[in-house]
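User: For my dataset I need records formatted as: sequence, then structure tokens, nothing else. Please produce one.
Assistant:
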Amino acid sequence: MDTKHFAQSHWQRHRWSITLCLLILFALVVGQAAQISRQNALDDLQHRAQTDLNRYLLNLQQKLERYADLPSLLATHTTLQQVLLQPDDPEVRRRASVYLAQVQATIQASDVYVMSAEGHTVAASNWMRLRSFIGRNFAFRPYFKDAIEGRPGRYFALGSTSRKRGYYFSYPVYQREQITGVIVVKIDLNEIESDWSDAGRDILVTDEDGVIFISTRSDWKFRTLHPLAPEDMQRIVESARYQNHELVALDILHRRELNDGAELITLMEGEAIENSALDGIDARQYLLQSRELDDTGLTVSILASLKPVQRQMYNTTVLTAAVFLLLVVLAAFLISRERIQRERTRFKQQRTAALEESEARIRAVIDNTWAGLITLDDQGRIDSFNTTAEKLFGYQQDQVRGQYFSMLFAEQDRHRCWEQIESPAGQEALLEAQACHCNKFLFPVELVIGQMQVGGLKRFILTVHDITERKRYEEQLKRAREELELRVEERTGDLTLTNERLRAEMDKHKDTQNQLIQTAKLALLGQMSAGINHELNQPLTAIRAYAENARAFLGMGKSETVEGNLTEIAGLTERMAKIIHPLKEFSRQSSGQPEPVCLKTVSDGAMSIMYGRLDKQAAQINWPESLQQFYVMGDVVRLEQVVVNLISNALQAMEGMPQKQIDISLLQQEDELCLQLRDHGPGIPDDELDMVFEPFYTTKKSGQGLGLGLSISHRIIASLNGTLSASNHPQGGAVFSMTLPRAQCPQANNIQEST
């Protein structure tokens, strides 16, 4: 049991270790797969974003280059040069403005206008509009300052008049190597935003200060990628570049640089409500890549959402986990299948070994039983001998196999044996016959011929017991009884006169009395053996039948039926043990010393001795309850002998009655306990009540007893300081009352001593 528990504990620890290792390996594999998948997806996203960025950058560059050289070309036009020389002439301003309007319509620019050296607009393409640039001064604009200093100017800003975004190209107008004015072309970049719409991509164009002025996200316009320094903020405000827009930086929580100038950023999107709680705010991750546009001061940036990366990483993680778990389940299934196969093989080997061991044990039981077992075919020919049968008849199994079984018996008994063979199934009888030894001498046997089915064929089993010793003992007992009865008749008178002297002598020789009691008990063993032999025949016959059936079913592979037969054989062996048990109980020697005896022990011992007889006669004994609580001073063996004698007398008194019942009751007195035994027989004649305990008094039939049982029982109870009396019950039947001194429970004495 300890080894099994240790093996189970070891397997549990081993299983937990394997589970822990699998979990660690699972975490490592899934984590590594997720990391590799994320990196691959990020590299792919970065490559595609770089390709898109180059495409958007080229698109913006082509857009701007279309207008980059127009201011320098217009600066050479005579009409525009003339308006700078005659800014107050209305006709000249009109012609210049009409020309500029034609140019604006042709090149599809937003506005084209001419400013004097002081920054006053003298001609403009929108001269016919309500908010015409003519007369307005833009000297504060950086593009004017660059051009007036002789450099081409480029600048992005919100129009101070139109309030619209525009990119400005400016160029100085030279007359006689002097700058007399500035030509400005303003273009609208709204078309770029509409062309750049791309799902999963956000495109930004920032100026040299990092201010976003073009974006596919309207809420990002006029915000910065980095917080502006105070001096830069002041400069931008003074130039009125973005009018009254607050240049607030985007809420970038985290930045991590990658290769090729790319960055991973975490951007907060949404607005805070008045109570400062976050409502609708979402932190998103983007891949940010930027590139400057040459000679413009502009930077084009692309923000690619990391959701595809996260989605691919999630799919890869789930797929890897599923594959890993599938492999683990498959491996566990294969390992479990292999282990089950091993267990099945081991169990089959164990079962085969157990069956072989059981068969060998049954064979040993059959070969070593004291009864001879002979199996016959349906014609009465011998199939097998066991070892005991070989010893009984002196033949070897090979010598008699195939011979008719009647050769084993004397000529005068053979016809009775054949009658049993030819009788219908189930009609078995115990026969006594003379068996014939191989050396031609005869010996008495007791035999039973039983029928059985083996493989659907009719078979017989012959159980033989050698009763030579029993016959010899019975003969001796018969002669002794006859001699004793003769002597009793001759000496009845003498024994009556010497009764008192005999009692005195018996008191002095208690050991002799015990030996006589034991001898009387052993004398009865001969009578008990016949009944026990008969009781053993049936289980032995059944054991043989079940064994043969088990062998046949084992050959057919019906292991469940074989197991049932073996269970029945085990039960029959227990029954045989119960049948033999009274012999041991009946032959025990008495200790001779009074001691506390439990009445329950006395009743159990007596019932064990009388088990076979009570069962055979279908007699019922009603014992009082809770006998285990009552103790008397006495000797357990002697008390059992007295109770057995009283029960035997009661059974004989009720002989011939259809229902035999014995009622036992317990009367409690202060210092004594009285056990009363009542039968339901005819009772004892009143004039003989005083004689029942006298030696050799009996009402039994001839051959059923000597009349010493009650006399010996009376003296046993007297030697234990008790009394045994007889009376008749008012409702019929005899009552024997056994009164003994009360004793305390030994366990109670031990408790008091310890206290």
